[in-house]
Design brief:
The structure is a homodimer of 822-residue chains. Chain A is an alpha/beta fold and 822 residues long. Chain A has 27 helices and 22 strands. In chain A, the strands form six sheets. Chain A has a six-stranded parallel beta sheet, with helices on both faces. Chain A has a five-stranded parallel beta sheet with strand order 1-2-3-5-4, sandwiched between helices. The N and C termini of chain A lie far apart (81 Å). Chains A and B meet through helix 7, helix 9, helix 15, helix 16 and helix 22 of A and helix 7, helix 9, helix 15, helix 16 and helix 22 of B. Chains A, B: Keywords: Lyase, Thiamine pyrophosphate. Chains A, B: Belongs to the XFP family.
Chain lengths: 822, 822
């Protein structure tokens, strides 16, 4: 590809000075604990005792930092950068220090010799700066440790930020991961009218830790076809070890110019087609009178999807570092991945080579006597908030606004007593979200993400307010697809999660709704986000973000035709292992509690909220007011469901958490009331499972005295729990009552079967719970033996009935609390 | 693309009869509980009361089943098929029943009206057949529930199976997932000389549950570029609702013929270049004398990687089903995803439409009066073991051979007392694996998979026996890359896991070595594999498979420069939630125990073994003989490390599991011996953590009496555990001693820091353990108060030392058991 040569020699020299400064600062972070400006000859005592860190990708990232700076100034861009490559922190830290943002955020990082030395010393030191981009790194929204999510983060950042350009640097190591491979398709969800742009830079430096990378070793035409197939129009810039740096600067500057121009043209065209945001931008001639809300954006036909530009930048790994060490090639091989020169304190030749390497950047030209960068080194740096380390989007809490959350009353289920009616909880939530979508129609700072399951999860009411965003072909037979929709569906949990992370990290709000079992697909991403939030709490200048919200539905207990593979409640366990400051798990038992929990979750900051709720019809246990009180407490006694006298202690506690366990528990309570009327039964429902933990271990933990008041200290507690039963044991093992606690839950006894057969298989059914009560409550009358046998008999009857009829026993299928409670 | 018309009219009619039979059988599985052959008019009582199942992808999968059959016969192929699309089971079950394999495997599936009806009745019924391919489905190695892994499974199946062709049907829904998007690159790891072939069939039926699919809606040239970019040479076959079926049969048959011919040519060429398997196939002119073992396969230069063929098959979703229902389009829309006609028992028009639909396949021509398929319907079916439901590879246990596992003695660390020397456990294991690679040089039924970390994980000794397999360009500067290597590295845990699954599911052995924290990336895949194995146990004809083995190393405690993002020991928790029949977790404390554990794991069948072991130098605690005994018991008292009298009970138990916890525990024991010599301390080490569980909950669980004999019933137990401490509580909460158990472990207090600072931050350091002992042991002398203060003082000293020096306290860094034990 021919690129116009746009750079003057003077500007080239300025860019090169900035880049050399970044390279110098990057290399010094690995090595120096003194003599930061090399004002004296380098000696062993200037070198850190432990050499830790990564050089390999730093020069390439520095080059991108430099040229993105130039593009921001030249094109007056509002731009941020997502730094994908692992261990890229030295270059990004160098950039933030050099442009002054680091010093403005952290007092110890002043733009002088002292701040420079502090940076060098803290890098890869105990408790110091990690070698991948992390919350400590100004301008970053990306943990560079795990690899795979940069591109999805970048698109999440770009959604609903029409003025923003997000540069996404994708390393060729990261590019081998599945999540990254899928995320290239994100362009088919980017609305050029309302969203910003993503400019991916595929940075091929050729090597991972110890191997070449795939994409660097396939023929260039094959790579080009791949990227065109993903929907991009690639611009290739290649630097080899012997390519003059000026040549690379010219080629890369021109490529950025071409890319920015193409992006602007695509946006101009798309925005001209869309006269204003929102429904009024709908195609003239649509027929609103037939279905005014359902599909206001429909625009069947081929997409006007731009072929977005993409840069393929090939630079040698460890470029400008030592070409050879001890006779072995290092630059442009995997050997430059970490510290190219080792044993520098002990080996005078290595020390000499290090000094030669560092001086090759001519630090004297880059920094004055006090260590302040020279004008030449700073010429390409943008002003103020346009600096990459100062872009507010990369510290999204600065832009965060409270959501205009709807009143719950109009959406709440009207109840008349407990368990008299049934509703689908997620459908009720969907109505509330619909209003939220309407309320954010112009702000566009709330989105719903999911893997092709919004309708399946009964959240399709939201399509009344906004369709699914879709930039590919739309057919006349399609429903609820539109160019500007804020529900995004793709059959990749990784993309959904990555987009949502990018969206909230840049100061917006959202929800990821998924089949419960498949949340595990993003377990690792969720864990990394928790770590990001936990680490951010220790970074003073990071502002609180909207929480990351999961709605897990289509849960383990109701997989009537999907069976065993769709049954896994263990995401809760995974989350509950993580930092208690960050993690929250809610198990609302009905529609109104789900509304309250969702309302709460959308107001929280800097947490990861996991809400598990069913989509199938579920008894309405609580009025909205009761639900509010119950959710505020997080757990509580449902006095109306038990049989104890006020003020006394019960004989037994039936506890439950989750919608199906709650139903079985209430049915068991009804059976006990009928068959063992003298037994004082207390029913406890738990919404916020962290309440079970000691206060010392989780901020939501209930103080012991309050816990004991609810659960007693020594009465039998039969606990029906939504997930793996041992989680309840692990949360409560320090409680007085723990020795009397008996938990039922999902224990991997799954199949394609009926709802009630699922609870029977896992010993969590109402009859089993009654048997548990009888087995564990001392001093029951002889009558109890007969009751126990009757329960056993129903279970036996169930087994033959379900085999014969394929349905549940009529007495179970038709059961309701209202019928039993007279 | 032009394709030759190779089919005669007679053969076309035969193929169409087979396909119609599959469609008929698929549709009937959703609806019928009687009148299987439609010998009488369809009535409401013939219809199942609950209509569950999925029709959408069945006709397309049936078409592929038919044509793969034809290709097997025509080209004398040894072929199997991996069925990727979700909910594809009806078509595959139909195929297996029709060809007779199902009836041979399961008595109730005879190839007559009775067997047919049994299939219809059991489908999607409680405890019956799921609607995605599962272990119940003959010929399948693929759980069709989660989506994303078919292509990786197919490549795993093809590795080292040079005669096998694996057809991989990839649904366009599945194709949106990350793991699938990455797995297209698997061709760059497929050795055409020693591996079989994978023929992907990208099946675009246009829709997921409720949405169009991405790949079906991008322009065809864009899709074609994408697939070429992935390294394939696509053949496109497109059927629209009005395309005559004969035309599609001709086009698809021709496409299969072209694909098979191209595969054979590529294999012939590659195999001609490689005169025989193994090192002797090395490039003439290599210089073995310089380094005979290290790189015997090196063949620098561009790859002779074939452009493998790939079929893009477009068929309408729900093809041949009802075009419209109640005036709404169903065929060729997402509405055909599940049951196209609902309420059939109640709605006479739907019943009529169902009958018309089913009769459109002309069942009278396909089945005789007894329900046996006619010759016409069976004409394309291969013989015997070539039938897709009978291929032995798809029931891999039939092909499994015992591994020639090396003797451990030559690889074991020679010890002279306890803790006198140090070794890197994974490096020691690597030597054993090297011999295993040598011993399987010709059999080629063992492989090591990992994400670019074999060297980083100190397993690079294996390269002495076999290089990393690589079919892309090789440079002169590369090391340990070769065309025929059996170590496969790609920076995608999903691909590593998927390949290994496919490899073991087809009857071979392997190991996946990964950074511990990043095992979570494949948590969901691991869970699905456990479910597959658990379900397989209930399928009589499934033969035991080699276990799926994980080596998790570079673990949480030693992430000196990677820090917080690389610290997550929770994969153990995830695995321990799953079916106890299947899951095993081992925490060998040193090199010799790791050898024993690995040897054991490689001998087991049908389990998932998670082995967590460090790569850093670690004290050699046990001789090989001691390690053997210790591993056989799974846990045990280390008498040499404690101070109790024989036969008595100790005052306190120090327990540990994992290499770092063991070191801290032994250091604590040494401190106690020195400072509180009167205290009777018992040291217990746990290798197999399921031993902690009750026997009733895990087959490895230790009976209570034995457990109590080791841990006591009431003495304080201070347990230093590798992972999240609460796991130990959850495993032991039923044990007598549980109330006295105090567990230390990783509690998310991570950073970039020194090894000892990590244990201090998480309160698992030796000094803290001694303090725990003092705090929890009643009746200690006043001297203990002083000792406690001394411990506290060292911890304080540590904090300032590490901040100042960036290294650990000398007394910790230089500590050894041998020095303390005189």
């Amino acid at each position: 590809m021919e690129l116009p040569a746009t750079l003057s020699d003077a500007e080239t020299a300025q860019l090169d000075a900035h880049w050399r400064a970044l390279n110098y600062l990057s290399a010094c972070q690995l090595y120096l604990r003194d003599n930061p400006l090399l004002r004296e000859p380098l000696r062993a005592e200037h070198i850190k005792p432990r050499l830790l860190g990564h050089w390999g990708s730093a020069p390439g990232l520095g080059l991108i930092y430099t040229h993105l700076n130039r593009a921001v100034r030249r094109h007056d861009l509002e731009a941020m950068c997502v730094w994908g490559p692992g261990h890229g922190a030295p270059a990004v830290l160098a950039g933030a220090w050099l442009e002054g943002t680091y010093g403005e955020l952290e007092p110890g990082r002043s733009r002088d010799a002292e701040g420079m030395l502090g940076l060098f010393r803290d890098f890869s030191q105990p408790g110091g700066l990690p070698s991948h981009t992390a919350p400590d790194v100004p301008g970053s929204i990306q943990e560079g440790g795990e690899l795979g999510y940069s591109l999805a983060h970048a698109y999440g950042a770009a959604f609903d930020n029409p003025r923003l350009l997000v540069c996404a640097v994708v390393g060729d190591g990261e590019a081998e991961t599945g999540p990254l491979a899928a995320a290239w398709h994100s362009g088919k969800f980017l609305d050029p009218a309302h969203d910003g742009a993503v400019l991916p830079v595929l940075h091929l430096n050729g090597y991972k830790i110890a191997n070449p990378t795939l994409l660097a070793r396939v023929p260039e035409d094959e790579l080009d076809a791949l990227l065109r197939g993903y929907g991009y129009d690639p611009l290739h810039v290649t630097a080899r070890p012997d390519t003059p740096h000026e040549e690379t600067h010219r080629a890369l500057a021109a490529a950025f110019d071409v890319a920015v121009e193409r992006i602007r043209r695509a946006q101009r065209e798309a925005r001209a087609r869309t006269t204003e945001p929102g429904p009024s931008g709908a195609r003239p001639g649509a027929a609103p009178e037939t279905d005014p809300e359902a599909d206001p954006y429909a625009e069947p036909g081929p997409a006007h999807r731009p072929r977005w530009p993409l840069l393929v930048l090939r630079t040698p790994k460890g470029w400008t570092g030592p070409a050879q060490v001890d006779g072995v090639p290092v630059e442009n091989t995997w050997r430059s991945h970490q510290v190219p020169l080792s044993g520098v304190r002990e080996d005078p030749e290595h020390l000499r080579q290090l000094e030669e390497w560092l001086r090759s950047y001519r630090p004297d030209e880059l920094f004055d006597a006090e260590g302040r960068p020279t004008g030449q080194a700073l010429a390409c740096v943008p002003e103020g908030g346009r600096r990459l380390g100062a872009v507010p989007h990369a510290n999204g809490g600065r832009l965060l606004r409270e959501l205009p959350l709807p009143e719950l009353e109009p959406h709440a289920v009207k109840t008349d007593g407990h368990g008299q009616t049934m509703h689908e909880p997620t459908r009720v939530l969907g109505e509330m979200l619909t209003e939220l979508f309407r309320a954010t129609r112009r702000r566009r700072d709330f989105r719903l993400f999911g893997p092709d399951e919004t309708a399946s999860n009964h959240l399709d009411g939201t399509f009344d307010a906004t369709p699914r965003g879709w930039q590919a072909h739309i057919l006349d037979t399609d429903e609820h697809l539109g160019r500007h929709g804020r529900v995004l569906e793709v059959l990749s949990e990784h993309m959904c999660q990555g987009w949502l992370e990018g969206y909230v990290l840049t100061g917006r709000h959202g929800l990821f709704a998924s089949y419960e079992a498949f949340a595990h697909i993003v377990a690792s991403m969720a864990g990394q986000h928790v770590k990001w939030l936990q680490s951010s709490r220790e970074v003073a200048w990071r502002r609180p973000l909207a929480s990351l919200n999961y709605l897990l539905t289509s849960h383990a207990w109701r997989q009537d035709h999907n069976g065993f593979s769709h049954q896994d409640p263990g995401f809760i366990d995974h989350i509950m292992n993580k930092s208690p400051q960050v993690v929250r798990v809610y198990l609302p038992p009905d529609a109104n509690t789900l509304l309250c929990v969702a309302d709460h979750a959308l107001r929280t900051r800097d947490t990861v909220n996991v809400v598990v709720a069913g989509k199938q019809p579920c008894f309405d246990w609580l009025s909205l007011d009761e639900a509010r009180g119950h959710c505020a407490r997080g757990l509580g006694v449902w006095e109306w469901a038990g049989t104890e006298e006020r003020g006394g202690e019960p004989d037994v506690v039936l506890a439950c958490a989750g919608d199906v366990p709650t139903q079985e528990t209430l049915a068991a309570a009804a059976l006990l009331r009928e068959h063992l009327p003298g037994l004082a039964v207390r029913v406890v429902n738990v919404v916020d499972i962290a309440r079970l933990m000691p206060r010392s271990e989780h901020p939501h933990g209930l103080p012991d005295a309050e816990f004991d008041a609810v659960f007693t200290r020594d009465k039998p507690v039969i606990f029906a729990y939504h997930g793996y039963p041992w989680l309840v044991h692990r949360l409560t093992y320090r409680r007085a009552v723990h020795g009397s606690l008996h938990v039922r839950g999902y224990k991997e006894m799954g199949s394609t079967t009926t709802p009630f057969d699922m609870v029977v298989r896992n010993d969590m059914d109402r009859y089993r719970l009654v048997m548990d009560v009888i087995d564990r409550t001392p001093g029951l009358s002889v009558r109890a033996t007969g009751v126990r046998q009757a329960m056993e008999d129903v279970r036996t009857r169930h087994h033959s009935w379900v085999r014969e009829h394929g349905t549940d026993l009529p007495e179970v299928a038709e059961w309701s609390w209202s019928a039993t409670s007279r």
